[in-house]
## 1
Amino acid sequence: MKHVVYFLLFLSSIVYGQVGINTSSPQGALDITSDNLGLVLPRVTSLEDVTNNQAGLAEDGTIVYDVSRAKTCFRVANVWICIANDGTVAVTTTSLVDPNAEKSTQPKKKEDQPETRNEMAVLEKEQH
């Protein structure tokens, strides 16, 4: 009987993977609902000290507030990117050319070429 209870508890945690805070019907992996409260990110004194896995490294997608820089920072491709105090983000570009690709003098057919998209997010500082 104990095994059945443990199995049902384990199964229910797998089946319902969404978490809701102040909501009984979360609309995403984490759904926080509030009329008058904001989200406070974890505060760190140094980005170098942020670890959230067993290897002692910060995972891509980690978001923290660095108090020494007074900036919100997020990790992408093993690099910390911080949002400037004026609400801007430095945008870097990555080459779309693969140096290991086969060299050819024949142009590819249009249907063989990957679709390219240029996107840019604009962050604006809220005026009080």
## 2
Amino acid sequence: MNVLDLKSISLFKGDKCVLNNLNLNIHKKEICCLLGRNGAGKSSLFKTIFGIYKPQSGVIYLNGVEVSPKNRDQYLNKVGALIEGAALYEHLTGYENLDFVRRYFTGEKSRIIELLDLVGLMPDKDKKTKYYSSGMKQRLGLAMALFHKPSLVILDEPTNALDPEGISEFRSLVKRLNKVEGVSFLISTHQLEEAGYYKDHILILKEGKLVFDNALQDIQALRILPHQTYPHVAEELQDQCYWREDEAFTLLKAPLTEFPLLWDELNAPSLEDIYLAIHQQKSHATHELLSY
């Protein structure tokens, strides 16, 4: 069962279609990264998931249950969020901020200690959060988003304000919490390196359409032949050796074994290659990649 399913979601603002017949699934215990330019529809997608926007068509399922106005509160109790920077009461300590969340959800105090330990803030639990570093604040914000044990946590550009050390710590923490808490993450980011770090599941939105939906490691099973470096090979193969599935890739092996140096130059596409191909519409390579 998937933790989240969006079926044929379309959303209009006036005459503008901001989400166009969107279908996506997020599996349980999965880390999914959402990429796209500003204005691609990422924020509108999140607001639709949260129930802030009501789509003109389509259905949302959480843990296999259709979301409706009648069960909206129950649905939202299964979703956590950290939108950019953590919203903290800076005159309160880390412990007190989590206790505020605990009282809202009528949870157990033992959950506060459990989460502080998980995010590495136990030594600083009694320090006022105005003295926390940016990285510590984000880790506390993540603990707050996880307090009620949601099935899905949405992170909107969570590392934007962090230094390299803070980014590394936060990424490692997300991976650890994914395993320990068994929670799925949907992460919006502009950083290709960050999306590539998680690898589980990459989504790319373009003008309200989901134009890429795959695991990065599956795409990297494909190969690129750099025809710019070896134009005679590209001409001989009639320029049909860009993005290839494994079966087609195998067919290329026989002629290329006569050119061992060329064979060694076959490379897996990076996430940057994929992203730029989509947004710059690079030749028919884009079409062959997206149809994989």
